[in-house]
Each structure stands twice: as structure tokens, then as C-alpha cells.
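Usage example:
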Amino acid sequence: MFDKFLLLLYKTFKLTDLPQYKKLYELLRKHIEDGVYKEGDLLPSENELCAVHGVTRPTVRHALDTLVRGGYIKKHQGKGSIVISQAKEIGILSIQGTTSAVGENKLRTKIVSQPKIMQWPDHFFFELSDVEKESGCIFMERIRLVNNVPVFYDITYLPNINLPRFCNRKFEDRSLFEILRKNYQIEVTGGQQRFSAIPANEEISKFLEIKKNKPVLHLERRIETSRNNFVFYSCLYCNTEFHALSGTF
Amino acid sequence: MFDKFLLLLYKTFKLTDLPQYKKLYELLRKHIEDGVYKEGDLLPSENELCAVHGVTRPTVRHALDTLVRGGYIKKHQGKGSIVISQAKEIGILSIQGTTSAVGENKLRTKIVSQPKIMQWPDHFFFELSDVEKESGCIFMERIRLVNNVPVFYDITYLPNINLPRFCNRKFEDRSLFEILRKNYQIEVTGGQQRFSAIPANEEISKFLEIKKNKPVLHLERRIETSRNNFVFYSCLYCNTEFHALSGTF
DNA sequence: GAGTGGTCTAGACCACGCA
DNA sequence: GCGTGGTCTAGACCACTCT
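Running the assembly step on the lines above writes:
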């Protein structure tokens, strides 16, 4: 009974609005990224996590499942949850943005064109809703460098819907995903992507500092978020000569 | 009490050994693929599925979660679970093999070299365990054609461990995943993949009927299965001019 | 308001890996 | 034999969508 009262109290004042499993997920993810748990380490057992965080097993399992999907851990029946290697390649295919996914290498972000508000391009590479079309889009171009070598050329399109002061923010060396999360409470929840191999055109070869017509990996991504009906788009060209893109499925 | 007795009976005689959520998943997946539920259709609600199949909600939810991960449905709070479009592109990135993932198009499989037992190549593209190395590998090459145009050139390496009569089976126009499932009770559970864009060499250009040096998508995949320690490998070259590869994340 | 999916509890038994 | 993760039950309350 007293428990019920506390629960009511907690919910009334909304000390935090993230669900429990997500809070646990974020905590463990942070610990893995910060190296508290290293590659090959065993996470605490599910029962331990239950006890420590005061939740039941399904909740803990939900958090761990999310870590599995994100490619952070691998579960082994009878053994436990093992932290997997942070990809040596660039794990852009998982749910994280690029910034958190390049292991040992130094990743920098260079802004080619600051975000600016404009019309959506004609013949956009994904279908747009009427609301999106009417709102116009925020357009930005970035180059990602790994160890000072350009590897990605990334064109991002966001719908211009309720993103106050977005164009004035500092993006240099900061993750777009992080900015969306911290400043707008927008979390990436999933998406679709299309892969193809194309020859580098004039522009791409210039940005990636490679010869014209050299094969580059082309990605078109539609990225869904926790904000209702808010999706954004990214068109990405990647020089895979030194860094393959990798992911789990 | 009587329920408990029935459960015991059922488990003793193992009428089937798939877990409930997986049986429900397979059933719904089959219905979606067979067109019982079409794109945009609403699946029965979770409570309905509980009642119809005699399981509780967490079990139903587990099955639906698996469908979401496989890219079959999308859930909308307050509305229901909606069947999503079967990718018009080739959804090789999801957990299915290529055969079940090409929508309207006709997909055929041509065998370049029948499976044969041999040594693993030197400098294999993923790290091999000692057991794998000692067992040798089963090697096969296939070409996938979409509407009679070659799109994939697929080299598969399986560890030669307990796969009786594998080399004598008919692979023409059959899915490897299906053969593994039906004949060996091996289910694909996940894996890793690396993407890069490379110029087609002599051999690739011949198999895919394209010009030499044309950009092709290169995939190296490590595919994990439900059989303990049994993983296999695939090296794939794809002409993405007419069919982008697509997937969800 | 009725129905949907989202989150969560408090238990239970099982299969697996290891010592 | 013990602890691990895997599966499952039988409930509960919530937020969301539709009408």
C-alpha cells in the first residue's frame, strides 16, 4: 500500500518522464561508452540489475534487449551479457549517429554549409507528407573526417517544424543526434535506408578528396524520431577505401 | 490445476519445440507474406491475438516486436499494428534472405558452382575459430537474378560441421536460409555486415554482366544461427544501378 | 468513452554453461 | 548444483487515437 502511495507521488510530480527501462538503458549505454564496461566484460546479471535498480526482470530485460539491438552487448544463455567490441569500422548502420561509433579513431565534423531554411528539392528521395512540404526544410551539409581524412559527405534535410534557433546552433564537431536529444528532446527511434554504389561526381570527389568516378557508397536514410510525425532525411556519400561501414542485424 | 496438468502433458510429449511467441511470429509472418494481411492493413489487436491464440499479452507483444524488427509491421499507440510495404528494393539487410524480400519482382537463383568441400581461404574476411578451421568449409557460388537481370553475385562459406548430404542438395531457385531451416533446423538469428563500394573486377563484371570498373556494392556478412557456435559467411557483390539495397534500423 | 498499444509488477519454470 | 538468461502467466495502470 505504501508502495502504491509512493508510486502515485512519483508520478504526480513527474521527477522524470523517461520510462524505467529507458533510463536503465541510457545508464548502461553511457557506462559502456565511457569504458566502465569494456569489450568482453560481463554486465551485471539480470537479477543483480533488478536488485540494484529496484525494478523487475521484464523491465531489466527490456533495457538489455535495447542494448542488444543497438549493438552494444550480446547475450549468452547460461553465461551473461557480454559487451561487444565497439566497431573498428564505422557503425553507422546501427541506431547511433556517426559520432559515437568510430571506436579508437578521431572523428571530426566540418560544416560545409550552415543549416539554412529553404524549399524541399524537387523529386526528393523519399516521399514527403503535405505538412512537411508546406513547412519547408532545414538544409545542411557536413563532412566527417576520420583521423583528418574525409570519409563522409553528409547532406541532411530536416522539416522546419518547431525547431527554435536551430540554424544558429554550433554544429562543428557535435553530433546532430545529440543536439536533437539535448535541445529538443527528440530521440531517434529507427528508420529506413537504401544503399547503392555510385561513381563520385565532381562535387563528391572534391569534398572527399578522391578521384572523379571512384566508387563511393551512397546512402539515403529516412530517420524516425520519438516526436510524433517528425522524421528527417540524410543523403550520405562515403569513401569506403579505408573504412568499411558496418552494422549488426 | 487442470491447466498445469495440460501444460505438463504438452511439454512432456513436445508436440512442438518452438516457443509460443515464435510460433505466433511465424504464423503472422506467413500471413503477411501470403497476402492475408496486405500493406496498410491493421493486424488484430493485441488483446484479440491473446484470446485467439490462448496466450498472454507479453507473449503476443514479443511476437509483434519480432515482426517490427523484421520490418513487417509498424505499431501505433492508440491505433494498432499496421502492415508495412514489402520493400520494392531488395531488403537483404533485414533478417530474411534475399528470396523472401523482393516484392513484386521475379527472383531467380543460378548456381555458379555447386557446393563443395574445401579448405578455408587464407586471410579470410572474418576471424575463424580453431574448430571452424579444422573442419574445412563448404563453398558455393550463386548468382541472383531479378527479372532475369543478374543483380547479386554471392559467395557463401559454411563450416563443414554436421551438415549431412549438404553438397548433394538442389539449390537452384531455392533459398539457402530455407534449406537450413527445413533440413537442418538451423535458424538465422542475426549477424554482422560490412559495406563498401568497389570497382568491379574481371570476374564480377562477367557474372553481373556489367562493364569492368563499374561501382558495385560489396558486402561481407557473418551470419549467426540458432545452432550453437554455428555461423556462416557470405561475400556479396551487387549491381545497384537498378535495385538499391534497403533495410530498416 | 472505448479501445489501442506502452509500461510495469511479482511471481513461475525451463534450458544452458560452468565448476 | 548453481547461477545465468529464455519463456510465460495474470494481472495492473497509463497515454494515445478515434468518434
